[in-house]
Amino acid sequence: MTRPLPAIPQYAASDLVGVLPAAAGAMGVRGFSSALPQARGAVVVLVDGLGLDLLRARAGHAPFLRSLLAGATDATAGFPSTTATSMGTFGTGLPPGAHGMLGYQVVDPATDRLFNELSWLNGPDPRSWQSRPTVFEHVASAGYEVTMVANDYFEGSGLTTAALRGAGFATAATLGQRVDLVLNRVRRTPRSLTYLYWGNLDRTGHEFGCGSWQWVAELEVIDDELQRLSAGLPAGVALTVTADHGMVDVPDDGKIDIAFDAELAAGVRHTGGEMRALQLYCTPGASQDVLATWSERVGGRGWVVPMDEAVELGLFGAVDARINPRLADVLVMMDGPYGIWDSRVMTQTVGQLVGQHGSLTPAEINIPVLHRHPK
C-alpha cells in the first residue's frame, strides 16, 4: 500500500446499509430491529449525490435539511462510493461483499467481459447476479404496500431488478410531482413503505461541478419540496432522507486517460470501476508489475492496494465466497482533484464530467441519514 488509507466503512446500522432495515423495524416488520420510534409507515427519500460534506457546506441554502442535521450522526455509503454499488447496499441492507454489486463497471467471470452495473447493458441475469432478498421483498411479504417512485426508465431495469425488486412502481417527471404522488399514496395507505428517488442533484454535479451555482440552485429546490413532503405526511408516518454518495470536482488537467498512457496500460486486461476508484483486472502474472507501476505513478495522488489486502481490510465488508471470482487484482482510489479513466471502455461523456465520485475520501463516502420522526 502506498500510504495509510482513510477511515474504512464499517457498514453499521447507522450507515446506508441500515436505512431500509431501520425503517422496516420501526414499522414492526418481523426480522428487522430499529432504534427509531415506532411508526405506522415510512417514506424514505434518496437524493443521488447529496454528500454529507456538501450538505454541511451549503446548509444555508437548505434550511429544512439543516434542521435535521442537528440530530444526525455521520454515516457512510460504503465502498466504492458509486450509485450501482450503493443501490445494492441500500436495497438489500447488506454490504457489497454480500450483495456482490461491486462497482460502476465490473467483469462478469462467466463471460470475461466488462459490463456496466448502472445501465446493465449486456449484463447477466440480475436476479442471479444479486440473489439475496431485498428489504422491499421482506416488507411486501409482511403485508405492507411498498412503492418505488423514480424515473420511468428504472422500471424493470437490471439495476432495479437486482437491488430494489419487491416494490410496486410509480413515476412522475418533476420532484414536485413525485412529492404529490407520494403524499396521495401515503394518505390513502399510511401502513406502507414508500421510496422516492431523485437524481437531478447528481446529474447537475456531474455536468457543472458540485461547487457550481447550479448545484446550489438544485439543492434549494430539493429542500423546499422535502419540507413540503414532511409537512404533508399523515400522523404516524416517518421520513428519512439519505444519499448514495458525495462528490468532488475534477478539472480536465487532473485527469489521465490510460488509453494514451502505455506505462499505466501495461499488464491491465480490463479497466473496471470508474475514474475515482479503478478496479484493474490484470493479465496472468502481471499483477505485481501493475501494482508497482501504479504505486510509483499514482501513489502520491491516492491509494494503490492489492485486492486481497482491500478485502482483508474490509472495504467491501465480509466477502462471500461466491463473490470472489468477481474481484479485480488491483484497486486504485484517488485523493485530491484527480481522476484516471480509460476511453477504450468508458464513454467520452464520462471522461468529460466535472463532478466525480467512487473513492474513499470523506467528501465522496460520507452521506446524511436524516430522520423526521412520526408526528
CATH superfamily of the largest domain, please?
Alkaline Phosphatase, subunit A
- Radius of gyration in whole Å, from Cα? 20 Å
What is the number of E strands?
Answer: 18
The CA-CA distance between the termini, in Å, is 50 Å
CATH class wording of the largest domain: Alpha Beta
Number of distinct helices:
16
Summarize, please.
The chain has 16 helices and 18 strands. By secondary structure, the protein is an alpha/beta fold. A six-stranded mixed β-sheet has the order 6-5-7-1-8-18, with helices on both faces.
Explain this structure:
Helices cover 34% and strands 21% of the residues. With 375 residues, the chain is α/β, with parallel strands linked by helices. The protein has 2 domains: 16-101 and 118-248 and 361-372, 3-Layer(aba) Sandwich (Alkaline Phosphatase, subunit A), CATH 3.40.720.10; 252-356, Gyrase A, domain 2, CATH 3.30.1360.180. The protein has a 6-stranded mixed β-sheet with strand order 6-5-7-1-8-18, with helices on both faces. A 4-stranded antiparallel β-sheet has the order 11-12-14-13. Strands 2-17 form a two-stranded antiparallel ribbon. Helix 4 packs parallel to helix 8 (158-164), helix 9 packs parallel to helix 11 (213-232) and helix 10 packs antiparallel against helix 11 (213-232).
List the helices and strands and how they pair.
Blueprint: H1 19-26, E1 41-47, H2 52-57, H3 63-69, E2 75-76, H4 83-92, H5 96-99, E3 105-108, E4 113-116, H6 126-129, H7 135-141, E5 145-149, H8 158-164, E6 168-170, H9 175-188, E7 192-198, H10 200-208, H11 213-232, E8 237-242, E9 248-249, E10 255-257, H12 262-265, E11 268-274, E12 277-282, H13 287-298, E13 302-306, H14 307-313, E14 330-334, E15 339-341, H15 348-352, E16 355-356, H16 362-365, E17 366-367, E18 369-372
Parallel strand pairs: 1-7, 1-8, 5-6, 5-7, 10-15
Antiparallel strand pairs: 2-17, 3-4, 8-18, 9-16, 11-12, 12-14, 13-14
Helix pairs in contact: 4-8, 9-11, 10-11
